[in-house]
Automatic annotation (TrEMBL):
CDD domains for the chain: INT_Rci_Hp1_C (cd00796)
Ranges that cross the membrane: none
UniProt KW keywords: DNA recombination, DNA-binding
Protein name, entry field: Integrase family protein
SUPFAM superfamilies: DNA breaking-rejoining enzymes (SSF56349)
GO biological process terms, semicolon-separated: DNA integration; DNA recombination
Molecular function terms from GO: DNA binding
Length: 371
């Protein structure tokens, strides 16, 4: 109940107060009725808080984005923020996590798939599922239930093939570029770097004495910054030495006026491709070209893995397989099989058993089904 509040013996108002878990909350009001209403409001809020058993969507989302801001790249953080913003708009920020249903998840993802694409819907699904798993691991009072986002099946979409520009096109662009832009394009081609890795490259990352260059990335489990040190080719070393000799006065090797870091450079490659009269290629297309060029020259998989800086050789093998396509594998198997079967048929059924083509194992027991 409100009590009279006095100061120096004079009444100054009515004191509204409540106590929860040993902590007092109070405020001086002008009238007793105002103090009663405020106490009733506080008690209602306390009751709701005590009845609540799981975090709200807004609490969970903000906690996870705090974590993501520290651990992930800006692009990854923005993708996660977009996914959680969709969830808040759909179910409300004050909704408890335990009340999110598979129907809610399906409605959100269906809407994204219809408005944008199945690929984007899968990205949203992945980020919401990752946020759920993080909450399950780190937040108190997390509901003991399966993620509603994981129960929604992935969406189909038309996967675009990796576009690899011909080396002749890249060489044509290199020949007409000015020295600084040529050095930057060489850095992408000779290191197979991702776009932002060259944007953030600093002079202290380049070891001219040992011909090594350090590329910093967060594309690792945990999101911590890691430096991958790879060899520097003679051509790239000479180009970068010329750039260092110009002395731009900034820490970044390649930067905008005033030493500001590049963000996208959307018009850089299109401008030079247009001037060279070659089809447009992308930053990542250069990375594809570097990998396919090494593969075409029979460079060992372990070396290509080191250049691409994949932690797993399986990732590199899959990457190269997508670049080659399955045509080569089919040609190797079936053209070899045809040649050996033809040779065997000429020698008759009693001739020596033909050699088994690579990748095919013949059954030694009866064949029950045939094409």
């Amino acid at each position: 109940m409100p009590s009279k509040k006095k100061r120096n013996g004079k009444m100054v108002g009515w004191l509204a107060q409540v106590r929860r878990q040993g902590v007092n909350k109070s405020r001086v009001c002008a009238t007793r009725e105002e103090a009663l209403a405020l106490e009733a409001q506080w008690k209602a809020e306390i009751k709701i808080e005590e009845e609540r058993t799981t975090p709200t969507v807004l609490e969970w989302g903000n906690d996870y984005l705090d974590f993501s801001k520290k651990r992930h790249s800006e692009r990854t953080y923005e993708e996660k923020r977009y996914a959680l913003d969709l969830l808040v708009r759909a179910v409300g920020g004050e909704t408890e996590v335990r009340h999110i249903t598979v129907g809610n998840a399906l409605a959100i993802l269906d809407d994204v798939a219809e408005r944008r694409s199945g690929y984007v819907a899968n990205q949203v699904r992945k980020n919401l599922l990752a946020a759920w798993n993080w909450g399950n691991r780190y937040l108190d009072k997390w509901p003991d239930m399966a993620s509603p986002f994981g129960k929604v099946e992935r969406y189909s979409y038309q996967k675009r093939p990796r576009v690899v520009p011909p080396m002749e096109d890249v060489q044509a662009v290199l020949e007409i570029m000015d020295e600084t832009d040529r050095a930057m394009l060489l850095a992408y081609l000779h290191t197979a770097a991702r776009r932002d890795e060259i944007f953030r490259l600093q002079w202290e990352d380049i070891d001219f004495a040992n011909s090594k260059i350090a590329l910093w990335t967060r594309k690792r489990q945990g999101g911590a910054w890691e430096a991958d040190r790879i060899p520097m080719t003679r051509d790239l070393r000479e180009a970068l030495l010329k750039e260092r000799g110009k002395g731009n006065g900034h820490g970044l090797v390649f930067c905008r006026e005033g030493g500001r870091k590049y963000q996208y450079r959307r018009h850089w490659i299109p401008y030079w491709c247009d001037r060279a009269g070659v089809p447009l290629f992308s930053f990542h297309g250069i990375r594809h070209l570097a990998a396919s060029w090494l593969d075409a020259h029979n460079v060992p998989l372990t070396t290509i893995q080191a250049v691409l800086r994949h932690k797993s050789a399986n990732t590199t093998a899959k990457y190269l397989h997508e670049l080659r396509g399955v045509q080569a594998d089919l040609d190797n198997v079936f053209s070899g099989q045809k040649a050996k079967v033809t040779e065997s048929s000429r020698r008759g059924p009693c001739g020596p058993r033909p050699l088994t083509p690579p990748g095919i194992r013949f059954r030694t027991t009866a064949v029950h089904l045939t094409l």
